[in-house]
Amino acid sequence: MTTPGQPTGAPATDPLVTTGITAGPGGVMTVEVGVITGDLTLRTTWDGHQALLDIQYDGADEWYTVEDSPVPAPDRASVRAVHEAMTAAVERGGGTGAPVQA
After folding, report:
1. Contact present, 46 and 76 (Cβ < 8 Å)
2. pLDDT tens, residue by residue, 73-82
3. Of the four listed, 3, 35, 71, 88, which is most buried by Cβ atoms within 10 Å?
4. How many C-beta neighbours within 10 Å does residue 59 have?
5. What residues contact residue 59 under an 8 Å CB cut-off, 6+ apart?
6. How many helices (H) and strands (E) does the chain have?
7. For 6-54, what is each residue's pLDDT tens digit?
């Protein structure tokens, strides 16, 4: 179980997941369905070279790819920084996509 607003997991072994993020006005831009708004969950996975960002409505089954994902992330610290930057971007809204860099 995750704590709202706090990432859990360790990059490269488990995704970082933050639940209970309320999207700011304009929400988050996704590849599959465009903008989503409301209470969201962010998941960041690492393939060893880049951070892949997905988002879903809290409690939903479907995940959507955040626009401009993946983001370069050469190490675990970079993955956490990208995840935290994306969490802040979701809270700001504005139809945001993935951060270019953390």
Report:
1. yes
2. 999 999 999 9
3. 71
4. 8
5. none
6. 1, 7
7. 454 444 558 999 999 999 999 999 999 999 999 999 999 999 999 999 9
CA 75 – CA 80 distance, rounded (Å): 9
What's the CA gap between 93 and 27, in Å, rounded?
4
Neighbours of 20 (CB within 10 A): 13
HSE at residue 102, side-chain half, CA atoms within 13 A, is 22
- Do residues 55 and 30 make contact, with C-beta atoms less than 8 angstroms apart? yes
Q: pTM, whole model, 2 decimals?
A: 0.85
Sign for the pseudo-dihedral over CA of 94, 71, 12, 64: positive
φ, ψ for residue 69 (rounded to 5)? Answer: -90, 145
- What is d(CA 96, CA 10) in angstroms, rounded to the nearest whole number? 25
